[in-house]
Fold each of these.
Amino acid sequence: MVPSFWGAIVLTKGDTPIVVPADAKGKKIRSFGATISDTIEALDAAPTIMSGSKQFLAYQNGTVDAGMTGITAVQSRKLYEVMDHLTLTNHADIEFIVVINNDVWNGLSEKEQAIITKAGQRVEQELRTSIANKEAEARKYLADKINIIELTDEQRAEWKKATSSVVDAYVERAGAEGKAIVDAAGKL
């Protein structure tokens, strides 16, 4: 597997910020997938799945109250023109992975597997460094365009507690493979 990393998820909001989980209650929040929707539901909010390209108009027209996206998207999609607050929840990362069929993988020689593994690890590190730099650049760019809220340790603990059911829902949906992924992540 070769991961592609798009960055940490942030929360955007118009008139008033969402800083603690209770601030999200009853809001319609833009989502882009099942696990993110589970997070929104854990906050007693309503997920609204939509593509990134539709965010600007959805915020502008009030179709949704808030959104989850990456900080680089806030910059590139000019979401700061229709949203006033950006909360650095960083509660999940937007990642894509490349998967190879087990039969194909097992059909490769050890040397070929080693080459692919080494290349994947190199690309993963390069992508993570590149995205971290892009996120820092976006944050700097946005500093005078949107209110950026950094959570305290106590606020982060509230978010973690409020969304603890999300991992359980993921494992239920993903089965044994999902449990293995969660267990492996817990060892990092």
Note: The two ends are 17 Å apart (CA to CA).
Amino acid sequence: MNKLKTLLILGVSSVFLLAACDNGETENSTEAQDDINYSEEVDYTITGIEPGAGITEVSYDTIDSYDNLAGWNLEESSTAGMLAQLDDAIKNEEPIVFTGWVPHHMFIEYDLKMLDDPQNTMGDSEAAHTITRLGLEEDMPSAYEILDAFNWELDDVEKIMYEAENSDVETAASDWMEDNQDKVAEWTENVEEVNGEEIELVTMPWEAEQASAAVMEQVLSDYGYDVTVTEVDPAILFESIAGDSADASVAPALPVTQGHLYDKHEDEVVDLGSNLEGLQNGFVVPEYMDIDSIEDLEPKE
């Protein structure tokens, strides 16, 4: 009996001892996570994209606006370069802070989060707009009607972007149109076909914009237009439409990302309104980084 009692006491003692050890390890792990200086780990650097991109401009404004980003640097790169660095960081579970935006297939491929922006310097949720040159309604009424009716959802764009990773944007756009004939029919209802009229669309060299342009190119082609799509940087996009050297674009993000360019040319273009709601710019990190806000970052000493 005494022997049994001794064994029971030893067993209970072991349970408490193990529980104490587990608690200590959990607390130490939490403390270790809390002790990570992510700002130092990323060398006080935000990984960016092309110098001409609207998100690049607002990123500089954000760095200047937040006191806790004193000493931080925006590393200008390219979209492809930024994504390559993101992929490396994810594979090695390393910290990275980078400029990101919705829609983008990166949010499908990786577990990411956009940091809260209490000062709202990266801008509110915005929309892609359709703009045309002056006089397009009179010169090309069928194209104008289609462009004016064009409207879709973030899920639509992201499906094309995701599929294009394993094919190309034209094929992905064609597949999307095949699966969404009812939506395309809404854009083209009562539109008269033409016979080879030339029209030039301008867009920007980023995936969401390429997806929109690819869909619009195929829709207009199906209605008899000879469509040219030209990729340019945002400033040239507005200048070409304002100067009548291009006809239309479904790419500009307003009112923030390309807002400064729109303000400059507002009287020289026709704004048909939004075709895609819910666009958002921000500083983005992998979900495994234990921060949630721009204010969680630390200044460079």
Note: Residues 1-22, 24-32 have pLDDT under 50 and may be disordered.
